[in-house]
Design goal:
Number of helices: 10
Shape: globular
Mean pLDDT: 97
Low-confidence stretches: none
Helix content: 40-55%
Number of strands: 8
Strand content: 15-25%
Largest sheet: 8 strands, parallel
Order of helices and strands: EHHEHEHEHEHEHEHEHH
Strand order of the largest sheet: 1-2-3-4-5-6-7-8
Radius of gyration: 17 Å
Number of domains: 1
């Protein structure tokens, strides 16, 4: 079995194709569970609705850096209640920092990130981190919020596209890196180097659909079925079997998202 640990099936690009069609194509390649990720208030509401209505879907609630301005203590209190009541909400995020093209001021992003870290810690669910061109600042905030010598909630840097050197800093803190279709791109040498070196218990696979379709499907709408392409490429890079990558990535996801099973 495979688990798409980061998807946006609630977005119009996939809804328009028919949710059952998307689910059936995913199941046909062995995808057993799909985690829909919240990016703002509306999409977070949608992820919960999809999870309640479809056995294969699970949900997170979160504010992407682009939507950090929506963060408030009141919203965090509302989400805390929701997470405690609904076991199919398996994490908080995606949240973090984006200095690449986000129009939201950095101080606003940092404040929203801290609020969501506190939320995840308060309810004991994992944190899904979005980080783009802000690696050191992200890590500084995480270092501020966590004691790495103690037991922490799970933390993943989703769609990891940083350097091997930075990835090693994350792994040393127990932070997981997750790979998307980017790892299949011919020019993604840095990401492939990270995949080659990632410890077998420190990675997960995802699509981040409808974005970042793997090389075989470039130009198409990405979807959960394509997570198999990510797993296949990692197996090729590491020189091990596809079946072993499926087994390990699923085992890692089960351990990371404790509410999945």
């Amino acid at each position: 079995m495979l688990i798409d640990t980061h998807a946006h099936v609630t977005f119009d690009e996939l809804v328009s194709q028919g949710i059952e069609n998307v689910i059936n194509r995913a199941k046909s390649v062995g995808v057993g569970k799909i985690i829909n990720i919240g990016c703002d208030i509306k999409s977070s509401e949608d992820t919960v609705k999809f999870a309640d209505e479809n056995e294969i879907f699970y949900a997170t609630v979160g504010l992407h850096p682009y939507d950090a301005g929506q963060a408030s203590d009141e919203l965090m209190d509302e989400w805390k209640k929701l997470i405690l009541e609904n076991k199919k909400i398996v994490g908080v995020g995606e949240c973090g920092l984006d200095y690449f093209k986000a129009k939201i001021p950095q101080d606003v992003q940092k404040s929203a990130f801290r609020l969501q870290i506190d939320l995840a810690k308060s309810v004991g669910v994992p944190l899904i981190v979005h980080c783009r061109d802000a690696y050191e600042d992200c890590l500084e905030i995480l270092d501020e919020k966590f004691d790495w010598d103690g037991k922490n909630i799970g933390i993943v840097f989703h769609c990891y596209s940083g350097t091997l050197e930075f990835a090693e800093k994350l792994w040393g803190r127990g932070i997981v890196t997750s790979f998307t279709g980017i790892v299949t791109y011919p020019n993604a040498k840095d990401v492939q180097e990270v995949a080659r070196n990632v410890p077998m218990d420190m990675f997960m696979v995802e699509t981040d659909c409808p974005y970042l379709a793997p090389q075989k499907f470039r130009g198409q709408t990405n979807e959960p079925a394509f997570v198999s392409e990510v797993a296949q490429k990692i197996a090729e890079i590491k020189g091990i079997s596809y079946e072993e990558i499926c087994e390990k990535s699923t085992e890692n996801a089960k351990r990371f998202f404790e509410r999945l099973f």
